[in-house]
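haha ok so turns out i had the wrong file open the whole time. this is the CORRECT one, sorry everyone. sequence first:
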Amino acid sequence: MSARAEALKPAIAGEAGTPPIGEAVGMGAAIDYLSQIGIEAIEEHEQTLAAYTLERLGDVPGVEAFGPPAERRAGIVSFDLEGIHPHDVAQILDWEGVAIRAGHHCCEPQMARLGVAATNRASFYLHTIPEEIDRLVAGLHKVKETLGNGASPTRGRREGGVRR
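then structure:
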Protein backbone atom coordinates (compact mmCIF):
# COMPACT_ATOMS: atom_id res chain seq x y z
CA MET A 1 0.00 0.00 0.00
CA SER A 2 1.29 3.40 -0.95
CA ALA A 3 1.61 6.24 1.57
CA ARG A 4 0.85 8.73 -1.15
CA ALA A 5 -2.65 10.30 -1.04
CA GLU A 6 -4.38 11.15 -4.23
CA ALA A 7 -7.08 13.83 -4.49
CA LEU A 8 -10.11 12.86 -6.49
CA LYS A 9 -12.25 15.21 -8.54
CA PRO A 10 -15.38 16.25 -6.57
CA ALA A 11 -17.78 14.33 -8.82
CA ILE A 12 -15.81 11.14 -8.25
CA ALA A 13 -15.27 11.72 -4.53
CA GLY A 14 -19.02 12.02 -3.90
CA GLU A 15 -18.62 14.88 -1.46
CA ALA A 16 -21.96 15.72 0.08
CA GLY A 17 -21.09 19.24 1.15
CA THR A 18 -22.33 20.87 4.32
CA PRO A 19 -25.45 19.21 5.69
CA PRO A 20 -28.52 21.48 6.12
CA ILE A 21 -27.81 22.16 9.80
CA GLY A 22 -29.91 25.32 10.01
CA GLU A 23 -32.88 23.56 8.45
CA ALA A 24 -32.56 20.64 10.89
CA VAL A 25 -32.46 23.01 13.87
CA GLY A 26 -35.47 24.94 12.51
CA MET A 27 -37.43 21.74 11.97
CA GLY A 28 -36.68 20.63 15.52
CA ALA A 29 -37.92 23.99 16.86
CA ALA A 30 -41.10 23.71 14.76
CA ILE A 31 -41.76 20.20 16.07
CA ASP A 32 -41.22 21.39 19.66
CA TYR A 33 -43.60 24.34 19.08
CA LEU A 34 -46.36 22.18 17.59
CA SER A 35 -45.87 19.54 20.29
CA GLN A 36 -46.34 22.20 22.99
CA ILE A 37 -49.64 23.31 21.46
CA GLY A 38 -50.72 19.76 20.69
CA ILE A 39 -51.79 18.31 17.36
CA GLU A 40 -55.28 17.60 18.76
CA ALA A 41 -55.69 21.26 19.76
CA ILE A 42 -54.64 22.38 16.28
CA GLU A 43 -57.10 19.95 14.69
CA GLU A 44 -59.89 21.20 16.96
CA HIS A 45 -59.06 24.83 16.09
CA GLU A 46 -59.14 24.05 12.36
CA GLN A 47 -62.47 22.25 12.65
CA THR A 48 -63.95 25.11 14.68
CA LEU A 49 -62.82 27.56 11.99
CA ALA A 50 -64.18 25.29 9.23
CA ALA A 51 -67.58 25.15 10.96
CA TYR A 52 -67.59 28.92 11.42
CA THR A 53 -66.57 29.47 7.79
CA LEU A 54 -69.30 27.16 6.47
CA GLU A 55 -71.85 28.93 8.66
CA ARG A 56 -70.74 32.40 7.55
CA LEU A 57 -70.60 31.43 3.87
CA GLY A 58 -74.30 30.64 4.23
CA ASP A 59 -74.84 34.39 4.71
CA VAL A 60 -73.66 35.07 1.14
CA PRO A 61 -76.29 34.43 -1.55
CA GLY A 62 -75.10 32.16 -4.33
CA VAL A 63 -72.28 30.47 -2.41
CA GLU A 64 -71.95 26.71 -2.74
CA ALA A 65 -69.45 25.01 -0.44
CA PHE A 66 -67.80 21.75 -1.48
CA GLY A 67 -66.53 19.00 0.77
CA PRO A 68 -67.37 17.08 3.91
CA PRO A 69 -68.91 18.46 7.11
CA ALA A 70 -66.69 20.55 9.39
CA GLU A 71 -65.83 17.70 11.76
CA ARG A 72 -64.21 15.81 8.86
CA ARG A 73 -62.24 18.73 7.45
CA ALA A 74 -58.77 20.10 7.78
CA GLY A 75 -58.33 23.89 7.55
CA ILE A 76 -59.66 24.20 4.00
CA VAL A 77 -63.02 25.27 2.59
CA SER A 78 -63.59 25.23 -1.18
CA PHE A 79 -66.54 27.13 -2.57
CA ASP A 80 -68.11 28.64 -5.66
CA LEU A 81 -69.86 31.99 -6.00
CA GLU A 82 -72.63 31.50 -8.53
CA GLY A 83 -72.11 33.31 -11.82
CA ILE A 84 -68.67 34.70 -10.94
CA HIS A 85 -65.44 33.06 -12.04
CA PRO A 86 -63.14 32.09 -9.13
CA HIS A 87 -60.25 34.15 -10.53
CA ASP A 88 -62.46 37.24 -10.46
CA VAL A 89 -63.49 36.44 -6.88
CA ALA A 90 -59.84 36.03 -5.85
CA GLN A 91 -58.82 39.30 -7.54
CA ILE A 92 -61.46 41.39 -5.80
CA LEU A 93 -60.75 39.71 -2.46
CA ASP A 94 -57.05 40.50 -2.98
CA TRP A 95 -57.95 44.17 -3.42
CA GLU A 96 -59.79 43.88 -0.11
CA GLY A 97 -56.72 42.37 1.61
CA VAL A 98 -58.03 38.80 1.71
CA ALA A 99 -55.89 36.03 0.22
CA ILE A 100 -57.51 32.89 -1.17
CA ARG A 101 -56.60 30.40 -3.89
CA ALA A 102 -58.58 30.13 -7.11
CA GLY A 103 -58.32 27.54 -9.83
CA HIS A 104 -58.50 23.80 -10.27
CA HIS A 105 -56.00 23.17 -7.45
CA CYS A 106 -54.30 20.37 -9.42
CA CYS A 107 -57.42 18.22 -9.28
CA GLU A 108 -59.07 18.60 -12.68
CA PRO A 109 -60.92 15.25 -12.41
CA GLN A 110 -62.59 16.46 -9.20
CA MET A 111 -63.54 19.75 -10.86
CA ALA A 112 -65.12 17.79 -13.74
CA ARG A 113 -67.00 15.63 -11.23
CA LEU A 114 -68.30 18.76 -9.49
CA GLY A 115 -69.25 20.30 -12.83
CA VAL A 116 -67.10 23.41 -12.38
CA ALA A 117 -64.00 24.69 -14.15
CA ALA A 118 -62.48 25.96 -10.92
CA THR A 119 -63.25 26.76 -7.28
CA ASN A 120 -62.23 29.26 -4.63
CA ARG A 121 -60.34 27.88 -1.64
CA ALA A 122 -59.90 29.51 1.74
CA SER A 123 -57.23 27.96 3.96
CA PHE A 124 -56.60 28.51 7.64
CA TYR A 125 -54.38 27.18 10.38
CA LEU A 126 -53.26 27.75 13.91
CA HIS A 127 -52.74 31.49 13.42
CA THR A 128 -56.14 32.18 11.79
CA ILE A 129 -58.78 33.98 13.85
CA PRO A 130 -62.56 34.22 13.25
CA GLU A 131 -62.28 37.93 12.37
CA GLU A 132 -60.31 36.95 9.27
CA ILE A 133 -63.20 34.75 8.16
CA ASP A 134 -65.51 37.72 8.76
CA ARG A 135 -63.27 39.74 6.42
CA LEU A 136 -63.56 36.96 3.82
CA VAL A 137 -67.37 37.09 4.02
CA ALA A 138 -67.40 40.90 3.84
CA GLY A 139 -65.14 40.64 0.79
CA LEU A 140 -67.51 38.15 -0.84
CA HIS A 141 -70.35 40.63 -0.36
CA LYS A 142 -68.15 43.21 -2.13
CA VAL A 143 -67.61 40.72 -4.97
CA LYS A 144 -71.37 40.27 -5.26
CA GLU A 145 -71.87 44.06 -5.34
CA THR A 146 -69.21 44.42 -8.01
CA LEU A 147 -69.95 41.44 -10.28
CA GLY A 148 -73.20 40.08 -8.91
CA ASN A 149 -75.12 40.58 -12.14
CA GLY A 150 -73.44 37.45 -13.49
CA ALA A 151 -71.38 39.41 -16.00
CA SER A 152 -67.84 38.20 -15.75
CA PRO A 153 -65.05 39.32 -18.07
CA THR A 154 -63.76 35.74 -18.13
CA ARG A 155 -66.98 34.41 -19.71
CA GLY A 156 -68.19 34.90 -23.26
CA ARG A 157 -71.24 36.99 -24.20
CA ARG A 158 -73.35 33.88 -24.73
CA GLU A 159 -72.52 32.89 -21.15
CA GLY A 160 -73.55 36.27 -19.70
CA GLY A 161 -70.12 37.87 -19.98
CA VAL A 162 -69.30 41.55 -20.37
CA ARG A 163 -69.69 43.11 -23.82
CA ARG A 164 -66.62 44.94 -24.98
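Residues 152-164 have pLDDT under 50 and may be disordered.
again sry for the mixup
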